[in-house]
Amino acid sequence: MQQTTKTKRSLILTTIICSVYLVLTIFYHHIDKYFSGIVYWGLTALIPVTFVTIFVFEIKGIIEIIRNQKNLSLKFCLPTIICSITILYTLFSPYKLDSEKLESEVEFSACYEGTQNQAYILFRKDKTFELHWTGAFGYNEWRTGKWQRAGNVLTLKYDGKKLNNLAKLF
């Protein structure tokens, strides 16, 4: 009875940790885009913490399977199988899920690369754009809005906070 409870608890804990890891890695584009400050840094730090935890659970599970070779069952091996699938998906899968694929397709893009900063702007087919500006010492800023093209002129209408000086962006 105690072994069944321990196995069930291990299965639940492994499933939760693997699920949290997969959700964070799949939705990292939107975490980066919409969160900032302590929430952003906390969620970003949680990704390697959960990955290391999964790896430790994997090693521990393999050791337990080797020790209990005579009493193996699917329920006993399931936490190790879940960890194995998560690690294999993360490291080797060519079909990675990414929340950016939920957004409109990119029509065209542009970039600026300086010595200590860079900016990428994506113009999407649904007439939205996103400008991702990163720099030294952890600087990370996103600007979004709508765009229109008339001939060779692009007009950008920013969402959210009003820009005092457009030169600050470039």
Structural write-up:
With 170 residues, this protein is an alpha+beta fold. 48% of the residues lie in helices and 24% in strands. It is built from 4 helices and 5 strands; from the N terminus they run H-H-H-H-E-E-E-E-E. It has helices at residues 2-26, 28-34, 37-67, 74-92, and strands spanning 106-113, 117-124, 128-135, 140-150, 153-158. The protein has a 5-stranded antiparallel sheet, with helices on one face. A hairpin with a 3-residue loop joins strand 1 and strand 2 (117-124). Helix 1 crosses helix 3. The longest helix is centred in the N-terminal third of the chain and has 31 residues, at 37-67. The termini are far apart.
Short description:
By secondary structure, this protein is α+β, with helices and mostly antiparallel strands.
Radius of gyration: 22 Å
Task: Give the N-terminus to C-terminus distance in angstroms.
Answer: 65 Å
* Overall form: elongated
User: What does the main sheet amount to?
Assistant: 5 strands, antiparallel
Category from helices, strands and their pairing: alpha+beta
The helix/strand order is HHHHEEEEE
| Average of pLDDT | 88
Helix content: 40-55%
Low-confidence stretches: 163-170
The tally of beta strands, per DSSP, is 5
Beta-strand residue percentage: 15-25%
- The total of helices stands at 4
Within the largest sheet, what's the order of strands?
1-2-3-4-5
